[in-house]
Design a protein that fits this description.
It contains 7 helices and 22 strands. With 424 residues, it is α/β, with parallel strands linked by helices. The chain folds into 2 domains: 6-31 and 100-122 and 207-420, Vaccinia Virus protein VP39 (Rossmann fold, 3-Layer(aba) Sandwich); 47-75 and 126-202, Golgi alpha-mannosidase II (Immunoglobulin-like, Sandwich), CATH 2.60.40.1180. Helix 4 links the parallel strand 15 (269-274) and strand 16. This is SAM-dependent methyltransferase.
Length: 424
């Protein structure tokens, strides 16, 4: 998982503290999808997603639009992004194998306290400006969402129940994703009228960014993560009264940088790592949109595992680590990531680079066939002897109706586990 610097001739990272990296190499995240790019976009969507209408396959570069707009239909579909994060499923011509991971570390001491199950809920977040988000309705394998000025329909396998609102409401959606219904399936967008511009403005937790139509049904932000972002924001702001230095946040598989911008705006120094240079470019567009170029963010295009291995050797330390890994992905040099193979080693490395004043370690897992207890017990073993508490469960979206003020059914989106240093 959703945020780099240029390598110099000696293999070092050329860094910049003002968020302008020397170069922008851009779902590694939910940065990588389960299928390589080039997978065919089948027309096996539910019947509600098919039919006449304006279709759109967004371009990877695409127009840069800062306000809702109608735009021309691009000439060709995207074929190089997965799980909503570009270029992650595409294997470069030159591949570099993932270096062997060190043996699993056997941490000693008592396991942290635990709290399970924990359900973290995202409800309507509108900021009162029409630029926020809420889940309007869901059912019959679909979900209807409000993203800023647009109502959008996308596949949702978890929505097994019938729709709550009339079909006439769903039929008035501004954009409908059609095509492969898999999480990382490739497809097209059908619009109510003329094709919309590729991007549009949004605002969550006082942070501006661009929503974006991609060829893999994702739209540049994962709103269920708002629960984690609020927690990070609260922790960073609270630490200002007890620390002489800013909180240091590491955002691995950072995608389009919304979490990084929220943390930096709250007062943190942020290092944002993603293997997709296109995602890094989008993140920097979001930074520019909010006139936030002076925020202390390092945008680093690198394989997440290699980066944290180097950070351990350097003796670097972070107070909060966010990690949102994909089930499968490739780094910028073709490094292969497999969640079940690499997650234990990645968490070991994350623990190793937590600072002595650490606040928390947050893990989110999408599209995996596992219980949250799997990552919960892994997190507790990884944090043996560290004290604190591990809480794990699911991230959910709560239906809120057309106006965003009518709480309805809960839609599960992902699993999470997080270690919190202070067991309050």
């Amino acid at each position: 998982m959703k945020d780099r610097t240029k390598r110099d001739g000696k293999g070092r990272d050329a860094k910049s503290r003002n968020g302008q990296s020397a170069s922008a190499k851009g779902p590694g995240s939910r940065g990588a999808g389960d299928k390589p790019a080039g997978s065919k976009g089948r027309s096996d969507a539910p019947a509600a997603l098919r039919g006449p209408g304006k279709a759109f396959s967004p371009s990877l570069s695409g127009p840069k639009v800062s306000k809702p707009a109608r735009g021309p239909r691009p000439d060709a579909p995207i074929a190089t992004e997965a799980k909503g994060r570009p270029e992650q499923g595409h294997a470069p011509e030159t591949r570099e194998a993932m270096p062997p991971l060190p043996p699993r570390r056997l941490w000693t001491g008592d396991k942290p306290a635990e709290r399970v199950p924990v359900i973290l809920e995202t409800v309507a977040d509108g900021n009162g400006e029409g630029a926020g988000y809420h889940l309007i309705d869901s059912g019959d394998g679909l979900k209807l969402e409000q993203y800023g000025p647009y109502r959008i329909v996308r596949p949702e396998a978890q929505a097994l129940w019938p729709k709550g609102l009339d079909e006439a409401v769903w039929a008035r959606a501004d954009a409908v994703f059609t095509g492969d219904t898999d999480e990382d399936g490739m497809g097209r967008w059908r619009f109510l009228d003329a094709p919309l511009g590729e991007t549009w403005p949004m605002r969550l937790l006082d942070t501006d960014f661009l929503g974006r139509f991609t060829a893999f049904r994702h739209v540049g932000v994962f709103p269920e993560q708002l629960a984690h972002w609020r927690w990070v924001k609260d922790q960073v702001e609270a630490a200002k009264t007890r620390r002489a230095r800013p909180v240091r946040v590491l955002n691995l598989f950072g995608y389009t940088g919304v979490a990084s911008l929220i943390a930096a705006r709250a007062g943190a120094e942020v290092t944002h790592v993603d293997a997709s240079k296109k995602a890094i470019g989008w993140a920097r567009e979001n930074q520019a949109l909010g006139r936030a170029e002076e925020l202390p963010i390092r945008w680093i295009c690198d394989d997440a595992m290699k980066f944290i291995q180097r950070e351990e050797r350097r003796g670097s330390g972070y107070d909060i680590i966010l990690t949102d890994p994909p089930k499968f992905g490739r780094g910028p040099n073709g490094e292969v990531w497999q969640l079940f193979d690499h997650l234990p080693g990645m968490l070991d490395l994350c623990r190793a680079i937590l600072s002595p004043e650490a606040i928390g370690l947050v893990l989110t897992a999408y599209s995996i066939r596992a219980s949250f207890y799997s990552i919960h017990e892994l997190m507790r073993e990884t944090m043996r002897g560290a004290g604190g508490r591990v809480e794990s469960g699911e991230l959910i979206l709560r239906e809120a109706g057309l106006a965003g003020d009518e709480p309805g059914r809960a839609l599960s989106t992902s699993l999470f586990s997080r270690w919190i240093a202070h067991d309050e």
